[in-house]
UniProtKB/TrEMBL annotation:
Family that this chain belongs to: Belongs to the acyl-CoA dehydrogenase family.
Xref: PANTHER family: ACYL-COA DEHYDROGENASE FAMILY PROTEIN (AFU_ORTHOLOGUE AFUA_6G10880)-RELATED, MEDIUM-CHAIN SPECIFIC ACYL-COA DEHYDROGENASE, MITOCHONDRIAL-RELATED
Signal peptide: none
Domain Acyl-CoA oxidase/dehydrogenase middle: 127-219
Domain Acyl-CoA dehydrogenase/oxidase C-terminal residue range list: 232-380
Organism classification: Bacteria, Bacillati, Actinomycetota, Actinomycetes, Pseudonocardiales
Alphabetical list of Pfam families matching this protein: Acyl-CoA_dh_1, Acyl-CoA_dh_M, Acyl-CoA_dh_N
Protein source organism: Pseudonocardia endophytica
UniProt GO MF annotations: acyl-CoA dehydrogenase activity; flavin adenine dinucleotide binding
Biological process, per Gene Ontology: fatty acid beta-oxidation using acyl-CoA dehydrogenase
Protein's name according to its UniProt entry: Acyl-CoA dehydrogenase
Key words of the record: FAD, Flavoprotein, Oxidoreductase
Length: 390
C-alpha cells in the first residue's frame, strides 16, 4: 500500500511542485501586495494558470479535466510554500467550488457552456449558497426560483460570495420546492442577465486579494436548461462537495503554518538583539520547537486523511478532526511567528503579517470549528461501536 508521504511525493508531483513554485515566484509574489491593494486578482492570472494545466486538475476527463484531488492539494500547498497566500488560492481556484457540481451532473451542453471555458481561464465561476439570514444552515435558504415555461425566475440575495464581483457565472442554491433541504436546487446564473447585481463589495480582515461580494437577484430570468441535475437535489450536491472543500482548507492551514515557521526560523537566525541572534535565546528556541511539532503533527494527519478519502474511505469525522487539527496548529504558529518577528511582524511589509490575518478565516469557512466538533461528537456518540478510527 502506498503511504501518504509517497502519495504526495511521486516523481510527477515533484515536477508539479516545481512548475507551481516557478509560477508563484514569477507571477504571484511580485504582484501580491498590489493585488491586495486592488482587492482582486487580474483575470489574466486565471488564463496563465490554465495554460500550465493548473485549473483542470481534479476534474473528470469528460469535462476537460486531468489529475486527481491530491494534485489539487499539492498546488494549493506549493503556492503558499513558495510565497503566495491562501487569499490567492481562494480567488484563483474558486472554480473548484463553483463548477464541480456541473461537471458531476454530466450534462454535455452545460459542460461545454460552463465548465470548459472556466477550466481554460476564460470565465470565472462562483458558488452562491450563503445568505444574509442563512449561513451554515443551508436548508434554510430563501432565494427562490419559480418555473415559468422554459425559464426560472430568480429572486433573493447571497452574501460572502468568493470571486463574486468578477464572476461570469454563479452556481446558485435556490428554492424550487417547499421548506427544508428537499426543496433546494442548483441553478447556474450568468451574471450578465438583467436583474442580477453585485450590491456590495465586502471588506474583510484578510484574503484582501480575493474579492468577496453580496449579490442580489431581482426577477432574473434563467433558462431551465441551466438547472444542475434535477430539482430538489441541490442540498445533496452541495453536501457532497463539503468534504473536499474542508480538506483543501486543512491543507491551506498546514501550508500557512509551515511557511510561517520557515520565515520565523530564518528571522530568528538573522535577527540580532543585544549582540546575539534571537535563535540563541532559549525562549525563542522552545517556541520554534513547539511550532515545528504542531506543524509536523498536523501535516502528517491531514495527509493521511486526505489519502484515505482519495482512496474512497468513509472518513467524514476524520476530515472534521483534520480541519480542526490543522487550524489549531496554524493559529498557534502564525501567532508565534508575529510575536517572534516583533514590530516587524506587525508591518504590512512582513509576510507573516499577511498569513496572520489570512489564516483567521480557515476556522470559519467550509464549516466552523464548532460545527466540525459537532460532526465528530455526533459520530462518536451515535455510533460508539466505531470508536476513534485511525
Amino acid at each position: 500500500m502506498t503511504s501518504a508521504h509517497e502519495l504526495w511525493n511521486t516523481d510527477e508531483r515533484k515536477a508539479l511542485r516545481d512548475t507551481v513554485a516557478a509560477f508563484t515566484t514569477r507571477e504571484i509574489v511580485p504582484n501580491l501586495a498590489a493585488w491586495e491593494d486592488a482587492g482582486e486578482l487580474p483575470r489574466d492570472l486565471h488564463v496563465k494558470a490554465a495554460e500550465l494545466g493548473l485549473l483542470e486538475l481534479g476534474f473528470p476527463e469528460k469535462a476537460g479535466g486531468a489529475g486527481d484531488f491530491v494534485d489539487v492539494a499539492v498546488v494549493h500547498e506549493q503556492i503558499v510554500l513558495s510565497g503566495g497566500s491562501t487569499g490567492v488560492t481562494s480567488a484563483l481556484f474558486t472554480h473548484s467550488i463553483g463548477v464541480p457540481h456541473i461537471a458531476a451532473a454530466g450534462d454535455p451542453w452545460q459542460i461545454d457552456e460552463f465548465v470548459r471555458p472556466v477550466l481554460a481561464g476564460r470565465r470565472i465561476a462562483s458558488l452562491g449558497v450563503t445568505e444574509p439570514e442563512a449561513g451554515s444552515d443551508v436548508g434554510a435558504i430563501t432565494t427562490r426560483a419559480v418555473r415559468d415555461g422554459d425559464e426560472y425566475v430568480v429572486d433573493g440575495a447571497k452574501t460572502y460570495i468568493t470571486s463574486g464581483t468578477r464572476a461570469d457565472l454563479v452556481t446558485t442554491a435556490v428554492r424550487t420546492g417547499g421548506d427544508g433541504h428537499r426543496g433546494i436546487s442548483l441553478l447556474v446564473v450568468e451574471t450578465d442577465r438583467p436583474g442580477f447585481a453585485v450590491t456590495s463589495r465586502l471588506r474583510k480582515m484578510g484574503w484582501l486579494c480575493s474579492d468577496t461580494a453580496e449579490l442580489s437577484f431581482a426577477g432574473v430570468r434563467v433558462p431551465a436548461r441551466n438547472l444542475v441535475g434535477f430539482e430538489g437535489t441541490g442540498f445533496a450536491q452541495i453536501m457532497q462537495r463539503f468534504e473536499s472543500e474542508r480538506l483543501i482548507m486543512s491543507v491551506q492551514a498546514v501550508a500557512t503554518a509551515e511557511r510561517s515557521l520557515a520565515l520565523t526560523r530564518r528571522w530568528a537566525l538573522d535577527r540580532r538583539t543585544f549582540g546575539a541572534p534571537l535563535a540563541d535565546r532559549q525562549v525563542v528556541r522552545h517556541k520554534l520547537a513547539e511550532m515545528a511539532r504542531q506543524v509536523a503533527v498536523a501535516k502528517t494527519y491531514v495527509r493521511d486523511v486526505t489519502a484515505r478519502w482519495s482512496a474512497g474511505e468513509d472518513v467524514g469525522p476524520e476530515i472534521a478532526m483534520a480541519k480542526n487539527t490543522a487550524v489549531a496548529a496554524c493559529d498557534t504558529v502564525v501567532n508565534e511567528a508575529v510575536q517572534i518577528h516583533g514590530g516587524m511582524g506587525y508591518m504590512r511589509e512582513s509576510e507573516v503579517e499577511r498569513h496572520y490575518r489570512d489564516s483567521r478565516i480557515l476556522g470559519i469557512g467550509g464549516g466552523t470549528t464548532e460545527i466540525m466538533n459537532e460532526l465528530v461528537a455526533r459520530d462518536l456518540l451515535d455510533r460508539p461501536e466505531r470508536g476513534v478510527r485511525s
